[in-house]
Amino acid sequence: MDLLIVDDHRLFADAMRHVFADHPQIDAVHHASGHDEALQQIVAQAGNELIVLMDLNLGGESGVDLNNRLRSLNPAMRTIFCTGEQPANLCLDEALLRASSFVFKTDALADIRACMDCVLDGGRYQSASLRGVQSVVAETLKLSEREGDVARLLMQGLRNAEIAAQLGVTDNTVKTHLKSIYSKLGARNRADCLLLLEKLRFLD
What we know:
Blueprint: E1 2-6, H1 10-20, E2 28-32, H2 35-44, E3 50-55, E4 57-58, E5 61-62, H3 63-73, E6 78-83, H4 94-99, E7 101-104, H5 109-120, H6 135-141, H7 145-155, H8 160-167, H9 171-185, H10 190-201
Parallel strand pairs: 1-2, 1-3, 3-6, 6-7
Antiparallel strand pairs: 4-5
């Protein structure tokens, strides 16, 4: 199995090459810094089993779009998406989350190794940091920006007064946003709302 690292951050790419160079299940490690190099590598690796460690944002290009193009050339390749973005700033599609493995560049090295081992064994791994990706929920439910903020803090276990203090609004404003979130979820109460939000966040 070969590993292709597609990342325009040379320091991270070099670190990953070093980490996985002596992995017993990886025969060779390759690197591409962008779209054109990645396509060349995929063509060069035609017929080889391949794992791609793909940056979500390649100097303004979408790693997801590039991954779809690469997969059309090598349908059997396995992808691990990685990013240096803060979880709360991400907006990820449900189908993508359902089908892909994710790690964050800020994850512990042991977690990144665990992800690679999982994917090499045919599994799918998702970083614990995905717990912070609240925009997935907001996108799915069509929440307003402020409702998304309230949902994010609610899932962190904050009480209404704490949410109000964090957002600089009144308790009544928080209650109004919660009522709207309940309605969009079809939740009967706070506990029901939290359960449904968790089901939306962890799609499997």
